[in-house]
Predict the structure.
Amino acid sequence: MVPTKAYVEQKFDEFNHLMFGGKLPRIPVEMSDAKTFLGKCVYRKRRKPGGKTEFYDFRLRINTRADLPQQEVDDTIIHEMIHYHIGYNQMKDTSSHGVIFMEMMNTINQRFGRHITVSYKSSAEERAQLQDKRPRYHVIAFVRFVDGHTGIKVLPRVAPTILKYYNMVSASRDIANVSLYMSNNTFFNQYPNSGALKVHPLAEDEIIRQLEGAEKLGCDGKAIIRNADQT
């Protein structure tokens, strides 16, 4: 199921009464299209007189990108409500999922037959759903190493950044060849877009498959050339 705001609010009230003694005030529910989390309890901090830190302005964010079983959606909501309970009551835990969190999680799992975990382990299909599917153009550096390994780097569409990356990586004695492409394949959305000197390992046949139909770019080290020879 893909949760709605109304569903999350209904479940918040239900779980609040059942598991938290009805003591948690309603907080704003925000539906998110993020690809990095299923649920998140967010809040702000401020320093009170005397130096004590106070947590306030709580909000509950639930992801709508993945179509998950209802039980997993509900467990995600409860997981974030535990964080809210700890923060709202200004309890100091040993870590984000520390002693207090684990005790509450285990108690709820045992008493109510839930399967809440510290981190959600998604299936390959669910991870694919969380990926950004909006087509956007990227510059892809296809890197071949001297030892036969291959990889890619997704670069910003900024000429100086592309040239700097191309020249520095090409100058490495470990690199056999660097080719540049322009592609709007959503496969590449999962990779960070930056000029950092890094190559993400990927099999050559997979790179070639994902770059099918991409525009090959030329580069002489000083300029990027569009409509380069596709061979």
The mean pLDDT is 89. The CA atoms of residues 4 and 31 lie 7 Å apart. Strands lie at 29-32, 39-47, 53-63, 138-145, 150-155, 175-183, 200-201, 215-219, 224-225. Helices lie at 5-19, 70-88, 99-112, 124-130, 159-170, 204-210.
